[in-house]
Amino acid sequence: MGISKIYPYSEQTLQLARIAKALGHPARITIMQYLFENQKANSPTFQKLTKLSKSAISKHTKELMFAELVYTDYKENEGSYYLKSEAGLLIQMLIQEINQ
What is the pTM assigned to this prediction? Predict the structure, then answer.
């Protein structure tokens, strides 16, 4: 998005748009559901769950990280993905904003 396209919108509106975009794909919804239930996962887990390639999982998790819903942590050379503590609240904010 160019600066002229985002200028009239508040930071909250832009954040909600990032969340909506991140949740706009079935694989990312599946990843989020898994993380809500299990709190932690790695790329091979998401590959088995979605039947997608490692590179596709990487793109989807990057989109979720850009929306500030997920973060990653590397321990013992293995990256794990975690749900951010505020993810549920951010999604609720999105739903409330749409319902207004």
Answer: 0.84
The C-alpha atoms of residue 82 and residue 61 are separated, in whole angstroms, by 10
Q: What tokens does 48 get? A: 């088995």
The segments of the chain whose pLDDT lies below 50 read: 1
User: pLDDT tens digits for 71-92?
Assistant: 999 876 778 999 999 998 888 8
- Smallest Cα–Cα separation from 83: which of 63, 99, 65, 66? 65
Non-local (6+) Cβ contacts of 15 within 8 A are 67, 68, 90
Report the DSSP beta bridge partners of residue 81: 41, 72
Domains and CATH numbers, the chain: 10-99 (1.10.10.10)
The pLDDT, as a whole number, for residue 5 is 65
- The greatest distance separating any two alpha carbons of the chain, rounded to the nearest whole angstrom, comes to 46
Question: Could you give the angle at the alpha carbon of 81 between the alpha carbons of 80 and 86, nearest 5°?
Answer: 145
User: What local confidence, expressed as pLDDT, does residue 79 receive?
Assistant: 84
